[in-house]
Amino acid sequence: MADLFSDAWMKAFMTEWNNEKDLADELAKINFNSNIAYGFDGEDQPRGILVIQNGKATDGGSYAGQTISWDLRATPDNWNKWVEKGLGMAGIGMAYVGGKLKFKVGDYASMIKDPRMAGPFVKSFNVMGRVKV
Questions:
Q1: What's the confidence (pLDDT) of residue 115?
Q2: Cβ count near 9 (within 10 Å)
Q3: Please, are residues 105 and 68 in contact by the beta-carbon 8 Å criterion?
Q4: pTM for the complete prediction?
Q5: Which residues contact 133 (CB under 8 A, 6 or more apart)?
Q6: What is the pLDDT of residues 28-67, one digit of tens each?
C-alpha cells in the first residue's frame, strides 16, 4: 500500500471520494468548493491535497504549495487507526476536543454545526478506508 497522503494515495482517495454518493453528491448540493490538505501533526506543511469543485474531487496528489481551505493534521498512528476503523460524529468530536485531530486551517466549529457539511465530513473518514493502492 502506498504511504498515507502520498501522491498515489491521494489520487486513489480522489477516486473513492467521487464514488461515494453520500459525499460528493451531498456536497454538490451546496456547491462546495475547497482545497483540503492532509498531513501529520508537527510537520510544517501537509503531505497531500484534494481539490474539490462542486462536491467532486477534481485533483488529488502531493501538496505543492497550493492555497489551502482546510488543513487536517493528526499523528500517523491516529490517521492509520481512523483509516482502518473509520470515525463517526462522536469520535470526530472527541478527537478534536482531545487534540488528536487538528485543523491548522479551517473552522471546525462552523463546519460541524452545518449538517450539510458535517455528514459528508464524517463520511470522508470512512471513504479513506477504501483506498487501496
A1: 82
A2: 24
A3: yes
A4: 0.92
A5: 1, 2, 6, 8, 9, 12
A6: 999 999 999 999 999 999 999 999 999 999 999 999 999 9
The candidate with the shortest Cα–Cα distance to 17, out of 61, 43, 55, 66, is 55
Domains of the chain: 7-128 (3.30.1050.10)
DSSP category for residue 108: H
pLDDT greater than 90 at residue 71 = yes
Of 89, 82, 95, residue with least CA distance to 125? 82
Q: Which residues contact 124 (CB under 8 A, 6 or more apart)?
A: 17, 23
Q: Which amino acid is residue 34, in one-letter code? A: S
Burial 59-94 (b: 16+ CB within 10 A, else e): ebbebeeeebbbbbbbeeebbeebbeeebeeebbee
For the chain, give me the number of helices (H) and strands (E)? 6, 5
CB atoms within 10 A of CB 96: 15
What SS3 state is found at 61?
strand
For residue 35, report the phi and psi dihedrals to the nearest 5 degrees: -110, 110
